[in-house]
Fold these 3 entries.
Entry 1:
Amino acid sequence: MGQLKEADFLRWGNTKRVTGLRKQDHDGLWESLKNHNFDDFWRIASKIFPTTTPLSPNASPNPNGTSTFASPPPTALSLPPNSSTLSPSRPPSTDPSGPPVADRDGAYTVRSVPVRIYLPDGPVLQDLVPPLVDESESRVVIPWVPLMTNDFVGAHTLRQYLRTHLPLLFPPPPSQPQAYALVQGVVCPGDAEMAWLGACMAGADGWVNVCIGLGRPPR
């Protein structure tokens, strides 16, 4: 539960989703894991994990141009001053003339995706991965910075993340990758979106565990 709380805080900026569970839900999570019962596990875990609402290109930023978060999470990120993102507003607008608003509980509006990278015979790297990037300049974007109208915001992919953090193993073209990524035992394509992985491929502890294998992926 400690790992789940940590992931919950890194993802949402608080642990309300975990601490708000009833005692029978806490017990149910543990019992479902012991009994390998996914249906019972997900009945409770779906209250904690983000939804898989797709990223909408027309999602509306916060109307006042400021973030709904009081402060950034406790991490030191070196980012350009004009980085931007969608604001996690909710509920979606009921005014048909107004633009749609991003789902507050959606995978693409989390503060960050909690990720651990397991290197062969090496240390475990723990990181916070922004779900979105400004594709016009390949900048990462964060939820407490206003969205700029001239920015093209896209989903942060596994390929982009690995090229940034493990450039020797995952160099840019025309060089070929020297390694591959496994998530939940599955060879993960480079265009997999980090937000989607956080919602659909995270472990029971809430973390996306990426195992790096050397050479070509198995077939």
Entry 2:
Amino acid sequence: MAEMELAEGNTVTFTEWHLIRQFLCYPGYSFALIVLNQPIKDEDLFSDLWSIAEPRVAADGGANRIYDLNRKSLLREHPPSSAGNYVNLDTIIGDLDSLSDESRHFFTTKGDCTVIHDPDQYSTDFTKAVRLVRKEYPGRDIVCMGGLGGRVDQGLSQLHHLYLFQRSPTYADGKMFFLSGESLSFLLKAGKHLIHVREPDADAGNFSRMGGDPFAKYVGIIPVKEPSVITTKGLEWDVENWPTEFGGQMSTSNHVLPETKVVEVETTKDVLFTIALKSL
């Protein structure tokens, strides 16, 4: 968290989000990648994340999704390599009821992948993956690929885990992001947030999907857990001291203004922030 000095000499504490630097792996922005058992629709985005993440963890059947991508990458290579583009998976963890024999064999023979069987039926494979990362890489941010897709109950479970694993008001255990081919979602704790949505001078290097202006205009601020009061700046329909709750009023399908580089959100309770990615 950071502090901003006001004109009258007071200071205000806020959380600053450099999303683009996060996904371009600027110094100080390392992250772990957890791949869930959902279709990976944007391979360019996945490839960018895969190239810089440490560690790379598959939650059970998430390994099958990576294996499928790997097979497709082999078909594009001329001549094909012996392994493909997505070999160096570090860990597969879960109750392994979804992991295919082909995926297990591939990642344990072509790379140096550890398979962990955790039969606990009172925790999800996603939970097991997060706990593993938090144990081995304390404080590291986590990007979950495939979040909020598929069945409604699974999507709600993932939102539950977003709250469950970020209890600290200062993100002391690390931040978590859900990323799909369509949007990026993360939790804003109670307080003030500065969210950098455009960084035109960012160095994208060899990244194919990420750059200085990767986000589309659509934004949602969702009070998933409990009612909140929010104030925003930088959106087409800004609000001030605006009550929001399920069954009441909510800020969905709002728009980032073309000139906005930083969206400001102040909230009295934890809320979900989601922003669309530009289409390919």
Entry 3:
Amino acid sequence: MCLNRVSFRSRLYELARDAVVPAKFGRRLSIAASRVLSPLPLASTVSGPVGRQSGAMKLVKASQDITIPDDIKLEVKSRKIRVTGPRGTLTRDFKHLAVDMYKTHDQVENDEGEMVEGPLKLRVDCHFGKRKRLAAIRTCTSHVQNMIKGVTKGFEYKMRLVYAHFPINANITDEGSCIEVRNFLGEKRVRIVNMLPGVKIVRSTNVKDELVISGSDIELVSKSAALINMSCHVKKKDIRKFLDGVYVSEKTTIVKDE
């Protein structure tokens, strides 16, 4: 006989009510019946910062907002983001993430007690996500925040030429889009490193043996600095003794905070 969910529960109640068992097993039976007959927990909706979730329960909806500044133009279409600001335009595709992205306004109360539209926000939602899919929400918002910061303040990495005996010579060519590193550990080989698109490198005017790499895209700026550092790795020697190289000394923005 096939029973639906309601009839099955009612039948269990009848069996538990009419069952005749010894007293020592009565408590165990009542606990077991309460576990079987208790309703199933429902997943809840969570908004705001997404933390680490215990267990394997899925959340119906998890979301996080980013406030868009007034001087920034942000466009969203099919999980493609285009951010335009004083320093230019940056684009990024988030189609590999299982999230929803859209612009929205929150209703806020003004001084007169009336409900008006608040500042423009970018909302990122994830439906029925577990731990890894929920982590994608913060990943997405962090990338967008870096894009907004890049088109307003820009990013700047400072690198130092470190040497003990053989001085490292750095020659910047092609209007700041290429650098030639010579005399590394006394070698005659010339190391040529091209900057990624939109990244410029100059020599510092205040500090000796310092290079300044700047751009609007934090990933392109950091990758360009990594390429310079990787070109000057010490090979076949004890790196605890031979510390020569080009290293990142400071990470900041082009437009300094007052």
